[in-house]
Amino acid sequence: MTAVTAEKDYSFNKLQKRIRRDTGKAIQQFGMIESGDKIMVCLSGGKDSYTLLDTLLYLQRVAPIKFELIAVNLDQKQPGFPEHVLPEYLQQLGVDYQIVEEDTYSIVKDKIPEGKTTCSLCSRLRRGILYKTAKRLGATKIALGHHRDDMIETMFLNLFHGGKLKSMPPKLVSDNGEHVVIRPLAFCREKDIARYSEAQQFPIIPCNLCGSQENLQRKQIKAMLNQWDKQSPGRIESIFTAMQNVTPSHLVDASLFDFKSVIATGEADDDGDWAFDAPPLPAADTKKGPTSDPDKAIKITQIA
Ligand code: SF4
């Protein structure tokens, strides 16, 4: 083995370990998978969903609990959709799968006037079909491939355009109340997923087949975050750590904290607030992030 190949192997192994460890940590921290679960893994053919399936298959092999996986792709009949790609890939993997064919593309084209954005109807239709499929398959969980950076982007979208401090939850009950949806890649960085997907040579299906433009606001936020990441290394990590470290009493939402019941305790508290000046900025504790304690996280991965 040449030095270059050895170095490449080493860095691939490190990357794979990190993705598996971060996924295991999210699964454990949010109680995403239980013994006996049948997990429907939504596979779009993009880098994120391939990485999700690949990592869940690994965890299924090493986990001390038993759970089933079934990959589901929704063929929305977009022009040029390469129908053979996913079945070939999934057969080669030997994983259970279903391709659901529903022509949502024609419905969307028919209902939405030319030039208007089609994504909201398209995703509503897709959601409904995936819920129906999960029910038909008897799936106890639906797994989606959203990652840490999707969650951060969504938080800024809501902050800048929606007037809400709200991101994408790692685990939730679906809007029809019938399904538990999980996002096992919640702690994984998009750049790791992109590198992993490239190294694994996943057969990527382009995501612009419908002809719709990517949401402009999301695009702008992505560009802003990328710039921050280049100019101020560590800022994105700090933001994500902050999302796991919320202090409702120091925000302004009276439904989260009972400000009316605040009374003086009469006891000094060294960690208490300074009432007259803004407190000094604490040193960012990015250690709470998923990559801070590799040994601990690896153990978590093993038991996930
Ligand atoms: S980009 Fe295309 S496929 Fe994706 S949600 Fe929008 S309309 Fe649907």
TrEMBL record:
GO biological process: tRNA thio-modification
MF GO annotations: 4 iron, 4 sulfur cluster binding; ATP binding; magnesium ion binding; sulfurtransferase activity; tRNA binding
Chain location of the short sequence motif PP-loop motif per the record: 44-49
Basic and acidic residues: bias regions: 285-298
Cell compartments where the protein resides: Cytoplasm
Remaining remarks: The thiolation reaction likely consists of two steps: a first activation step by ATP to form an adenylated intermediate of the target base of tRNA, and a second nucleophilic substitution step of the sulfur (S) atom supplied by the hydrosulfide attached to the Fe-S cluster.
Protein name per UniProt: tRNA-cytidine(32) 2-sulfurtransferase
Organism name: Idiomarina seosinensis
Organismal lineage: Bacteria, Pseudomonadati, Pseudomonadota, Gammaproteobacteria, Alteromonadales
